[in-house]
Queue: 2 jobs
Job 1
Amino acid sequence: MQGLCMHAGRVCPAARLPMNPTQLPAWSSLARRTSPARLPEPGSSAQRQARDLTFDAAGLRADLSRHWLERDTLPLLLELAEQAGLPSWRQRLFDGAAVNTSEQRRAWHTALRSDADAGVVAARDRMLALADALRAGSLRGATGAPIDTVVCCGIGGSDLGPRLVTEALGAPSGATRLHCVTNVDPVELSAALAQARPERTLIVAISKSFTTMETLANVRAALRWLHAAGLEPAQQLYAITSAPARAQAFGVPAAQVLDFADWVGGRYSLWSPCGFPIALAHGRQAFEALLAGAAALDAHFLDAPLERNLPVLLGLLGVLYVNFHGLRTRAVFAYAQRLRQLVPYLQQLEMESLGKRVSRDGTPLKFDTGCVLWGDVGTTAQHSVFQFLHQGTQVAPVDFITCAAFERSADERERLLYASALAQADALAGGDAALGATVPAEPWRCPGGRPSSFITFPDFAPHSLGALLALHEHRTFVQSVIWGINAFDQFGVEIGKKLLSQRLPGQ
Ligand code: F6P
C-alpha cells in the first residue's frame, strides 16, 4: 500500500511514503557491495578518504574515520537517504506536518526551541515564570511560608531529559532545593520528603498524559504527606501536562496547571514545559541557551548537505551496522561523569522511537530496525565492559562522547578522561597493532577493526548540551525515515499500562 498510512486502524492518505527500503536501488547495492567488516586498510585511498570524515555541527565535532566505510559505502548510504525521501520527510518534520503517522500528529519538537508558534511561547513563558517565582522565593505555601523545596514526580520522557540536563549543567544556581522522583518504589519519594519541610514544599506532577500510574501514585503519597502536616495539599500542587482536564479532575487547581500541546512527544519533551526542573535548577537564561543550542543543531540538520550533515551521517551508520553487518547493539560512553544520565535518556529516545515491527502503513517488516543501546560513563566502564568490546565475538559500534575542553584542561584528570577515550577508540580500531611495535600475533591479542565515533562538545554550557541532545533526536529520526517507520508513537508501552490497570482497577 504505497502512499498510505494507518490512523486509528483506518488507512489514510499521506505524503508519498516509500515504505520498503529493501526495494530501493541503493539498499540492493549496499547489500551486494557492502565491504567486509573491516576498517579501511592503512595507506589505502579509502583510509585517506576516511581521514576526511571529521564533521562540525553547531559546535560539536565528530571524527567518523574509525568506521567500516570502505570505497563507495558512504556514497551508497547517501543515495539511500535520498531514495528514502529523507529531505522531504525532514522538511515535513520542521513544518509541523503529521509525521507521527499512526496518530496523525506533528512531532514538532523543533518548534519548541523557536518562537515560531505562539502557543509554544506562551506555554514556555508560563513555565519559566513559575521557575522564576520559586527561584526568587516569592511563591508561598499554605501557611504563608516561602517554598524552598520542589519535588517533581515524573517518569520516562517526563523525567529522563530534564534529569540529564539538570545534572549535566552542574550545581544548581538557585536556592530552591529540587528533588526529581521517578520510580514508584516508595524509597525514592521517602528519601526526598525526608529532606523537606511540608509547609515549604511544592509538589509538581510532570505527566504528559496525566494517566501514568507510577507518577500519580507518587503524587498521591506526597499529598498525603502534606495533609498529614495539617496543610491543604492542593495549595502546594502544580501539574505540567498536555491533559489539563485530567489534572483538574485529579484535584490540581486550574491556575496551577501548566499545559502544553499534545503533539509534544514524551521523549522529545525536555524543551517543553516538562523542562521545568532545568529552569528551576539553573534559571531562565540557561534554559533559553539550551533551546538556542538545539536550534543551532536544527539549522545544521535542515541546511547542511547530506554528505556533511552530522545527524544524517550518524543515522546512516546506524542503518549500515544493523542491516548490512547484523550488529544488533550500539554502546555509548560519555567520558564525563556529569553525563551519567545520558545512556538512560538515549535508551528511551532511540529504543522507544526505533523499536518498531511495522512500517508507517502497518506492513510487518522483514528487516531489523533499531538496536539495543547500552553503555555507561568512561573511564569507569573501561574496567567492566571494555574487554567484551575489544575481544568479544560480538562487535558493537561505540560512540565516545566527551568534552573538547578536557583535552587541554589544567586538571590532569580531565586530560586523562579525554586521552583515555581517544586511546580506547584507537585500540578498538587498531588492536594491538596500534601499539606500533611489532607485537607477536598471539591469539589472545586485540584484533582491532572495531568501529567507533568520537564526538566532542565544546563545554558544559547549556548551548553545547542543547546541540548534543538535538543531534541524537535527529539521528534517530533519520533512521526512522530510512526504515520507513514512525519514530513518534509507542503503542508497545501502552499494553503494559492497560494490563496494569486491569490488575489494579481503580488505582
Ligand atoms: O514509556 C511510555 C511513556 O508513555 C513515555 O513515552 C513517556 O515519556 C512516559 O511513559 C511518561 O508518560 P507521561 O508523561 O504521560 O506520564
Job 2
Amino acid sequence: MDKKIIANWKMNPQTLEEAKELFSAEIAGALAHPNVNTVICPPFVFIEELAKIDNKHLGAQDIFWEERGAFTGEISIEMLKNFGVAHVLIGHSDRRYVVGESDEVINKKIKAAIRADVAPILLVGERSREDDKGKVLEQQLSVDLAGLSKEEISKVLIAYEPVWAISTSDNAEADTPKKTLEAVRMIKKIISEKFQLDYGPVLYGGSVNENNVVDFLKHEDVGGGVIGGASLRKEEFMHILKIVSEI
Ligand code: PEP
C-alpha cells in the first residue's frame, strides 16, 4: 500500500510569498514521487492561493464542525472543499492542549469531515513519557470515534503522535520504531475490541526526519508519517518523499 506523508506546517511561514515557494517545491517532490500519497496542510489564509498552484495535495490543519452560521472566527469544511482540500488534521496536540479541545469536540469534527467526504487525520497519543499509553489511547479513541460506523472509522486516518516526541516539545526526541509499532498495535487492538473493526495501517508523527523516516515507515503496519518541523525545510522534505518512494 502507498505510504502517506502528511506535512503539517502549523503557524508557518509568515508570508504568502514564502508559502508559495515552499509549496511549489514540495508539490514538485510530490509529483516526482506519485507512489507516495503526499498531503500538505498549510495555514488557512494561504490555501486559496496555493490551490492555484496545485489543488490535489491540499489538507487543512483544523475545521469547525458546523457548515455555516454564527461561529465567529471559525472555518467550515465546505469552505475548504471549494479549494480542493481533501484531508484535515483533527485532534492535533496543539489543539488539544494549547487551545483546550476536548475529545467530544474532536468527535464532532471527525463526523463533520466524514459527512463532507473529506478524510480526517486523527492524531492521538500520550502527553508525557510517564503517561499510561494504553489508557490514554483507549480514552481518546473511544470518545473521538464514538458513534461512527465501521465503514466510517475505516475512512479515518489515525496517526500515533506522542506529544513528548514532537520536535517543538521540551527535550523532544523521536519515539523508537519498536515502541511506535507497539503503540500502533495497541491502537489496532483497541479499535478491534471497541468497534469490531480490523483497522489498517496507522501513521506515526513525532520528530520524523530524513535520517529516521525509513526506520519508522518500513513496517507494513505503519502507513506513513506526519511531519512538522522537517516539512518547513523544503530540501529535507523533498528528500523524505524520495526515500519513502523507495521503501
Ligand atoms: C506535528 O506537530 O504534527 C509533528 C509531527 O511535528 P514534528 O515533526 O516537528 O515533530
